[in-house]
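Quick one: structure for this chain?
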Amino acid sequence: MTRSEPDPQPTDQRQVDSSSEELSAAEVFAQLALELHDAKGLEETVEAVVDFALQAEACTYAGVMLIARGIREVGAVTDPVVAEIIQFQLDRGEGPILSALAEGAAVSVPDITAETRWPGITERVGSYGIGSALHVPLWLDVQLLGVLSLFNLKPNAFDVDDEAIAHILARHASVAVANARDGETMTAAVDARKLVGQAMGILMERYDLDSDRAFAVLRTYSQETNTKLRDVAQQLIDNRTLH
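Got it. Here's what it folds into:
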């Protein structure tokens, strides 16, 4: 009796399945890139990030904590529970999220009930029924923008592949957040120039000043009262006076 050759179909099928999974992941991240590009501002951008995390990751809840000019705040969450968790750590000044921020590296909490590094924090997180968490910093070059946090109701929910996907998601999020902030800064600058221009027009018409002199009046008042030039201009437009 001759030995039959093994059927190659299972191996071929596994290759097809693997290719399909890779294609699916690529398509999902491509969709994320489009959604982030279409987001109209910082708030919509981080909301798109956390919503996407539920699709791309083995997580029950997701959230983003942002930092700008030393101010740390809740950026977006998929559930109010996450906002409470982030705020609790901000109020206490410790926890895995802040450790990820301070260390600039991912912090994994495989089993909340067995975690001993932040006993008060993890006890609170566990009270929400959360079993495991993964926190990945949002880096853009050398700038740290915040932390992406993922939570699962089961312990040991995030494996090596999940962490790799979380890092990819964090990179996408970092670029999108930076672009959104730049866009909002640019919009604010344009709005400020418009306000100052309107205020200058009021002074020029009322006191027969040229543009240089009108701007000098606004700037002097701004310096003497320690008020932003934009706010000085808004005050003049609203009240028709600087007093």
